[in-house]
């Protein structure tokens, strides 16, 4: 019985890390913008909260909704990531243009939503398996928050090295990640 619970916990830790790696990859690109450390901390917390809310909704709806919804959420999330990345890439060419999506306000909500959509799909499947919901949600939120911080700080360091080109690189990373999700 202890081995069974330990096995479930290890599986949840690996799943949380895998979901958090999405946030890390995307945050690496977003961190290449000029973002203060206080804002990075806030963004990580928001993404962590979304990685708790989205799988919770998925778990609650897991028994009532078919697997088709998971494909739709991945499609929407990938399009949002691509749009954010394209806007970031092209805004690097026009320095006077106001950025369309900033990691504040509705831009932060869109960013966190798009990064956490895959956790909704995971929540759907977990809802059907009867996993320990509270532990899973804490692990998902904590892992994504910490990996977001690591990604954004690493992106901030790269920005210092690459200068203006880092925004194009960051936008390219977001676009590539969106396309990867779309065609994966």
Automatic annotation (TrEMBL):
Membrane-topology annotation of the record: Multi-pass membrane protein
CC annotations in GO: plasma membrane
Keywords assigned: Cell membrane, Ion transport, Manganese, Membrane, Transmembrane, Transmembrane helix, Transport
Spans traversing the lipid bilayer: 6-28, 40-61, 73-93, 105-128, 134-155, 162-183
A GO term for molecular function: manganese ion transmembrane transporter activity
Localization annotation: Cell membrane
Similarity comment text for this entry: Belongs to the MntP (TC 9.B.29) family.
Function, as annotated: Probably functions as a manganese efflux pump.
PANTHER family on file: MANGANESE EFFLUX PUMP MNTP-RELATED
Protein name: Putative manganese efflux pump MntP
Designated gene of the protein: mntP
